[in-house]
Amino acid sequence: MGKTRQTANLVTDNNIFVDVNNDKVGIGTTNATSKLTVAGDVSVSGVLTASSFVGDGSGLTSITASSATSADTATSSLYATSSGIATYASTSGIATYASTAGISTHTSKWILGADGNSNYTFTGPGLSESSSDPIIYLVRGQSYQFENSMGAHPFRIQSTVNGSVGTQYNDGVTNNDVSNGILTFEVPFDAPDTLYYQCTAHASMGGKIYILDGGVIGNPIINISGENNSGVSTLTDLRLASIADKISIQSGTSANLAYNSGDGNVVYMTSATGPITLNVIGIPTTSDFDSKAISFSVFVQQGPSTAFACTSVTLNGVRFGADASPGLSTHIAYASGTVATGSTSCIDVFNFTGINTTGSASSTANYKLLGNVNGNYRLY
């Protein structure tokens, strides 16, 4: 005997159909192919529970997926307006997009400014305040952004040393020479150890970029080449390059330092030609520098027949010198025999410490200067 379809109009005519013999219900259709077949939209105000869902999910929108933790197979492209993103998928070809997501697309971002036509200023991670032409440290495999909204001072990453517009370095760089927008640098694993940033309109605006590995592997080696006019040391591992960055190599009679700059607070004078004056600028006078002491060192490579001492120090324009009257102002003097003389070659080290006598950094004149020679390294 053949099966008979029985129809029951339970809500409105021709909307709900029940196949009693096959235990199937159709809503909006007379052809129920499963236990429940719905032709049209379904609105659920409570919780919908199922053992599995079939389909690619391409039509799903406005999904909050903060609690999803597992997916057996995830080969589709998914969109979520607020995403905590599934953390595990046994088979994953997933391409995910989230308009609000807890995933960072770049490691650090700096905002660029300018000090006239002389220096770039950087505001961002690793810099306590706006800094002029600082050394920037980046890590291979990471992504960084530099935002220039000035409409001027085109910002270039190049392989040529600072002082002129050189060869662009474009590997991993998007929007090089940016003057109004964002430069993104995805640092390649084969990037050189040293690059440079340079304003293409002003030769004096620029600085170094050191490229580091993501972690220390093996035992770093330091090779010291000895003293010479080209530098104090040669570092074969640039992860330790900051040691050399703290020393500014100069010659002549003026040792010039910018406090809190890449030069650090140490000067190595390779060829002194007379008594040396240490000039320090950029010492903070803001309240966060109250009651602080500041220190500086001058290394002087003395010649075989002459020797020169550091006889004058200027801090933010306030001068302390050997010609000052003892007892009335800070007088710099050295006991006989403490500075190399005669037919010797040596290095003398002059240390100076500024003690803030009033606790207020509002004026550098509040510093009292202490000085001494703390080392003679002689070669007879």
Q: What is the residue-averaged pLDDT?
A: 73
For the sheet with most strands, the description reads: 7 strands, mixed
How many beta-strand elements? 24
Taken as a percent bin, the fraction of beta residues is: 35-45%
Which shape, going by the Cα principal axes? elongated
Q: Supply Rg.
A: 35 Å
Instruction: List low-confidence stretches.
Output: 1-12, 65-103, 216-220, 224-244
What is the count of distinct domains? 4
Q: How far is it from the N-terminal to the C-terminal residue, by CA? A: 123 Å
Provide the succession of SSEs.
Answer: EEEEEEEEEEEEEEEEEHEEEEEEE
What's the number of helices? 1
Give an overview in words.
With 380 residues, the protein is mainly β. It has 4 domains: 1-39, no CATH class; 56-103, no CATH class; 108-212, Immunoglobulin-like (Sandwich); 246-379. The chain has one helix at residues 242-245, and strands at residues 16-19, 24-27, 36-38, 71-74, 77-80, 89-92, 95-98, 108-115, 119-123, 131-132, 136-139, 143-148, 155-158, 173-174, 181-186, 194-199, 206-212, 247-258, 266-281, 294-302, 310-315, 318-321, 345-356, 367-379. The strands form 6 sheets. Strands 18, 19, 20, 21, 22, 23 and 24 form a 7-stranded mixed beta sheet that branches. Strands 10-9-8-12-15-14 form a 6-stranded mixed beta sheet, with no helix packed on it. A 4-stranded mixed beta sheet has the order 11-17-16-13, with no helix packed on it. It is elongated and about 115 Å long. Mean pLDDT is 73; it is low at 1-12, 65-103, 216-220 and 224-244.
What is the fold's blueprint, element by element?
Blueprint: E1 16-19, E2 24-27, E3 36-38, E4 71-74, E5 77-80, E6 89-92, E7 95-98, E8 108-115, E9 119-123, E10 131-132, E11 136-139, E12 143-148, E13 155-158, E14 173-174, E15 181-186, E16 194-199, E17 206-212, H1 242-245, E18 247-258, E19 266-281, E20 294-302, E21 310-315, E22 318-321, E23 345-356, E24 367-379
Parallel strand pairs: 2-3, 4-6, 5-7, 8-12, 11-17, 18-19, 19-20, 19-21
Antiparallel strand pairs: 1-2, 8-9, 9-10, 12-15, 13-16, 14-15, 16-17, 20-23, 21-22, 23-24
